[in-house]
Amino acid sequence: MTRLDTLGKMSATPEELKERIEAGIPGAVASVTGDGHHFNAVVSARAFQGLPRIAQHRLVYDVFGAELGDRIHALSIQTKASATETEAQ
Amino acid sequence: MSDTTTNPMRDAIQEAISENPVILFMKGSPEAPACGFSARTVAILESLGARFAAVDILPDPRIRQELSTISNWPTIPQLFVGGELVGGCDIVNEMYQSGELQETLGLEGPVEADQPPAVSADSAPLTIENRL
């Protein structure tokens, strides 16, 4: 069984989404809340600098691909470009 | 996909996007939205007095599939203005709050509305400070 098959059978957690966003987007700091199906993510990243909002959101969606609308039923996103590398926390 | 030369569904969606200055792909209809995100987006557009075309993506799963291929955007709703994707509910909401949406829609300044915007109750309450 592949990792994706396994993931498909587990419900998603805010912690998992946060980790994957932070791992997938350079310099990202994410705060995620949710109930296992509907999630809300506030993400700041230096990778967002100079990008239109729509491109910033696409970077976040791209972390999850086809899981969106399926395993992750809904994901609300707010993005902010961080000017410089933010220190942890 | 084996046949990319003929795709009537994709062509129809592309045509709808180019022919309508403002078009919303949503779940359900503006009168009966079938999802909270679609409902909120409709409420925002209506509160601005914007005229828009709406397409319900629910009747045929291919609509959503082809739409997302065209727009490179995975979620519903999707608002297009002048043939360009503006965004989904989050972006429309942010742009509405900042006044950018009114500008994008060519609606300068606040519109005299007959009724207050029918936004959902979970939206952030406005904080109005009177410093006169």
Secondary structure: elements and pairs:
The complex is a heterodimer of chains A (89) and B (132).
Chain A: H1 3-9, H2 14-24, E1 29-34, E2 38-45, H3 53-64, E3 74-81
Parallel strand pairs in A: 2-3
Antiparallel strand pairs in A: 1-2
Chain B: H1 8-19, E1 22-26, H2 36-47, E2 53-56, H3 61-71, E3 78-81, E4 84-87, H4 89-98, H5 100-104
Parallel strand pairs in B: 1-2
Antiparallel strand pairs in B: 1-3, 3-4
Helix pairs in contact in B: 1-3, 2-4
Walk me through the structure.
The complex is a heterodimer of chains A (89) and B (132). Chain A has 89 residues and is an alpha+beta fold. Chain A has one domain: 2-Layer Sandwich (GMP Synthetase, Chain A, domain 3). Helices cover 34% and strands 25% of the residues of chain A. Chain A has a 3-stranded mixed sheet, covered by helices on one side. In chain A, a hairpin with a 3-residue loop joins strand 1 and strand 2 (38-45). Chain B has 132 residues and is an alpha+beta fold. Chain B has one domain: Glutaredoxin (3-Layer(aba) Sandwich), CATH 3.40.30. In chain B, 38% of the residues lie in helices and 13% in strands. A 4-stranded mixed sheet of chain B has the order 2-1-3-4. In chain B, helix 1 crosses helix 3. The longest helix of chain B has 12 residues, at 8-19. The relative contact order of chain B is 0.17.
Give the tags.
heterodimer; A: 89 residues; alpha+beta; GMP Synthetase, Chain A, domain 3; three-stranded mixed beta sheet; 3 helices; 25% strand; globular; B: 132 residues; Glutaredoxin; four-stranded mixed beta sheet; 5 helices; 4 strands; 38% helix; 13% strand; disordered C terminus
